[in-house]
Design brief:
CATH class: Alpha Beta
Number of strands: 19
Mean pLDDT: 95
Number of helices: 16
Largest sheet: 8 strands, mixed
CATH superfamily: tRNA-splicing ligase RtcB
Structural class: alpha+beta
Strand content: 25-35%
Number of domains: 1
CATH architecture: Alpha-Beta Complex
Radius of gyration: 21 Å
Distance between the termini: 33 Å
Shape: globular
């Protein structure tokens, strides 16, 4: 992206003043080098989002952004229902509520090293992973509706984990207002045998060691120290979420003109929040969020079972669970007034600051944990939400490294077997049913996650707390 197209506000904040049909500016949070590495399509998509009805303040772009369907991945936008604001299926994405859950194990690096290969093999056997993977849980349609309405609470009630887990999940494990009746039968059928599975793409189970602490006070509140072992789970709503996105993209595209909405591109299909179609999508999308929350809760249960057989002293406690493909109803200050808004975060993580009442009481004084996934060969990070982020970007931050090349490009450039061997030489064990999938997720196919996190920290979107390094990665 050319810098001359942007107005520099600070070293990590850049602005595109409204032009054409834009109703508000586009604000990009990134270092100069990250800006230069972004495709021009990111700017084009951010400008298109800024032209949607009822958008508030600005169209925001996170440091890990790359172009996606309609919204850029790493895009944030809030809409006011009282001003004709819209909800967009493209602004949520196809993997609804894809997110990261980090679990503390009570183990240290010295506990893990002698049994690392045993743990890797046990997780690979225990966790259903890959395209079309199915698990041992088979739901009826009635059970499916209960799961879509209840999320992680439904999973805990079925014996997958404990109620103490729920306080460490956004919205205490259930997206309120889910309406399973607005989820198509086809979407539900795709999920009947996929509950408790990892899927493919960039989804993973990763055993990690805390390598560095940046903020001792917040780390203590989070319960992590250098040398601790944690496990991070990255996955979403599987086939159900994808089908919801597909179904409503078609419906919104067909209905746009009847609502007087002119779409800059088809993938920005949307509907007024107060319209019947907008409310239907909200109900279906929230069901998709609950699907993802239940999925990660069940995977956590499988993780605990795997560790019980190998490391009996392990005590697996949930640090936090955050989603990064959502639209959530939230209250924010706009021009000095509290407003009810619907905040789209596509490839962006909620980053609420200290004192927010939605954060678990024991974490409220330091801010919400913000979990940033890296790649199987690079670092991941734990950050904390900031007070500044609430006014900068509706309490939002980056979600990962962000791709620097497509999956097709990666498979042409990298060999899965060679990657597995090379990472093993570095002490990182990879387990995957697909060597092509490993090649698609080659570490060098992504941006430098440390640079992305530094930009988010310097922009005050979130504050660095800890750096994690991978030891074992199970991928689909």
């Amino acid at each position: 992206m050319e810098l001359k197209k942007l107005k520099k506000i600070s070293e990590t904040q850049w602005c595109v003043e409204p032009f054409g049909k834009m109703r508000v500016p586009a604000i990009i949070f990134a270092s100069q080098s990250l800006i230069k590495s972004m495709d021009d399509k990111v700017l084009e998509q951010a400008a298109n989002v800024a032209a949607l009805p009822g958008i508030v303040n600005a169209s925001y772009v996170m440091p890990d952004a790359h172009w996606g369907y309609g919204f850029p991945i790493g895009g944030v936008a809030a809409f006011d229902p009282e001003a004709g604001g819209v909800i967009s299926a493209g602004g949520v994405g196809f993997d609804i509520a894809c997110g990261v859950r980090t679990v503390k194990t009570g183990l240290t690096i010295s506990d893990i090293e002698p049994i690392k290969a045993t743990i890797a093999d046990a997780l690979a056997r225990k966790i259903p992973a890959g395209v079309g993977s199915t698990g041992k849980i088979h739901l009826s349609m009635k059970e499916m509706d209960d799961m879509l309405a209840g999320g992680a609470v439904w999973a805990v009630d079925r014996g997958f984990g404990s109620k103490s887990d729920l306080m460490r999940i956004e919205e205490q494990g259930t997206a309120k207002g889910a309406q399973p009746r607005y989820v198509s039968e086809q979407a539900k059928k795709r999920q009947l045998d996929e509950v408790g599975t990892l899927g493919s793409g960039n989804h993973y189970f990763e055993v990690q060691v805390v390598k560095e602490i940046y903020d001792a006070k917040i780390a203590q509140a989070f319960g992590i120290s250098v040398g601790d072992i944690v496990v991070s789970i990255h996955c979403g709503s599987r086939g159900l979420g994808h089908q919801i996105g597909t179904d409503y993209l078609k419906k919104m595209t067909a209905a746009a003109s009847s609502y007087g909405i002119e779409l800059p591109e088809r993938e920005l299909a949307c509907a007024p929040l107060e319209s019947p179609l907008g409310k239907e999508y909200l109900g279906a999308m929230r069901s998709g969020i609950n699907c993802a929350l239940a999925n990660r809760q069940i995977l956590t249960h499988l993780l605990r079972e795997a560790f019980e057989t190998i490391a009996s002293k392990a005590r697996l406690q949930l640090l936090y669970d955050v989603s990064h493909n959502t639209c959530k109803e939230e209250t924010h200050s706009v021009d000095g007034k509290q407003k009810r808004l619907f905040v789209h975060r596509k490839g962006a993580t909620r980053s609420f600051g200290p004192g927010d009442p939605t954060i678990a009481p024991e974490l409220r004084n330091v801010g919400q944990p913000v979990l940033i996934g890296g790649t199987m060969g690079t670092a991941s990070y734990i950050l904390a939400g900031t007070t500044e982020s609430m006014s900068l970007a509706f309490g939002s931050s980056c979600h990962g490294a962000g791709r620097s090349m497509s999956r097709n490009q990666a498979t042409k450039q990298y060999n899965g077997r060679e990657l597995v061997s090379g990472l093993a030489h570095r002490g990182i064990l990879i387990r995957s049913p697909s060597l092509r999938g490993v090649a698609e997720e080659a570490p060098d196919a992504y941006k430098d996650v440390s640079e992305v996190v530094a930009a988010a920290h310097d922009a005050h979107l979130s504050a660095k707390v800890a750096k994690l390094l991978p030891l074992i990665c199970v991928k689909g």
